[in-house]
């Protein structure tokens, strides 16, 4: 995608521009339009009802954008957005983990530029900068195309569905997810595990112990005082 805002990026030798919110505190209209446009393109391609990457949300966040441009540095080929999130995640053993991992929040390559290795190039750059492996990064509401990408390039496919719609692959729980710190200023290694308590939905019914006859639960037939005493209840005299 050609856009005048590309000239305000500062791509490195890999043609990747790393953009932080601090770098766009005094933006121009072209840069604002660029971020809004790539976010809109990503959401349309994923069929999302709302745009998840906008300039206003990005500029007030602690996320990072990795924007890949072409060799002429005039066209955007794709982008990746990452950032920390406070999550409650369930593992396969019924334990809930509270943590603040770095997450993959948006991932997009323009359709005309797909199947050229650009997606893998951006992800590899992110992993290298963070010193992480892909299985250590939860993904926010990934599309079917994103899931296929993760399976093809990283062998990641099995996961436990989460209430928050993040995808955490099974290999996440086998990795050293508690000890990484992508930023000195972020508390990303916070982790707390809470075991799921089994709730007893039906309380145990108390056992009734018989104190008299063995069949104490059987209904008893009411008797008049006269019959109990062997008297005629009409004349109150003994039966003949």
Protein structure class: alpha+beta
Beta content comes to 15-25%
Task: Please count the helical segments.
Answer: 5
Low-confidence segments, ≥5 residues, pLDDT <50? 179-189, 196-226
Encode the helix/strand succession as letters: EHHEEEEEHEHEEH
CATH topology: Aminopeptidase
Strand order of the largest sheet: 1-2-3-6
Q: What is the CATH domain class?
A: Alpha Beta
Kindly state the percentage of residues in helix: 10-25%
Radius of gyration: 33 Å
For the largest beta-sheet, the strand count, sense and barrel status come to: 4 strands, antiparallel
Number of domains: 1
Mean pLDDT across residues: 82
Estimate the global geometry from the Cα principal axes.
elongated
> What is the H level of CATH, i.e. the homologous superfamily?
Gcn5-related N-acetyltransferase (GNAT)
Assigned CATH architecture = 3-Layer(aba) Sandwich
Terminus-to-terminus distance: 115 Å
Counting DSSP E segments of at least 2 residues, the number of strands comes to: 9
